[in-house]
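Hey, quick one: can you model this chain's 3D structure?
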Amino acid sequence: MTIVAPEPDERAFLEPRWPIVATLGFFVLVSIVLRIAVPERSSLGPVWLVPAVEIGLLLVLLAADPARVSGHRRWLRRLAIALVSLLACAALASTVELIVDLVEGAKVTDSASSLLASGAVIWLGNVLVFSLFYWLLDSGGPLARYRGDRPYPDFAFTQHMSPELSPPGWRTQYADYLILALTTSTAFSPTDVMPMARWAKLTLSLQSLIALTVVGLVIARAVNVFA
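Sure thing. Here's the predicted structure for all 227 residues.
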């Protein structure tokens, strides 16, 4: 019997998906707990809308075999990008809504604990959304990075710039992009990663501005409430 060799885009690609699933699951849990603990917090549309999108994205990632990313599964990547885009719209809308609540003095802003909890969830949501965007779009996505389809990366990690510091065959995985998004939201700029593509520079700038706005306004309002 003749065994047909797999096409190049059908080769096995090993990248654990559990960090993404764990991060999404944690955020869904936090969102649900906050909704129960702070019922007066305003929401974007029905209370089930954003958690439903998050759970849908979680199911899409589980449907994609964690040990194989191949050409016939590219529709799952497109669906994942669409769902992340919906989450990005929800995160931006929630940020704007929180700013409006702060300006108008909504009920949630009268309690420092409720305000800090709402701000923390919005801040975490932005970290999650941008980390998924970076992971899905950098250099064409996980499969393109594995195959080396593009000669230049959109993000230059320390291991790219100093190959002697990394093991042979090192590739970025989701945890690297989660750390990138986390440091961008805390330091308001990347720390050990350099954006090379224009879209990467613009996206990092947008994330920094959102994080700075949320942290600055929420902390300032919370201090006034405590005072």
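One thing worth noting: The two ends are 80 Å apart (CA to CA).
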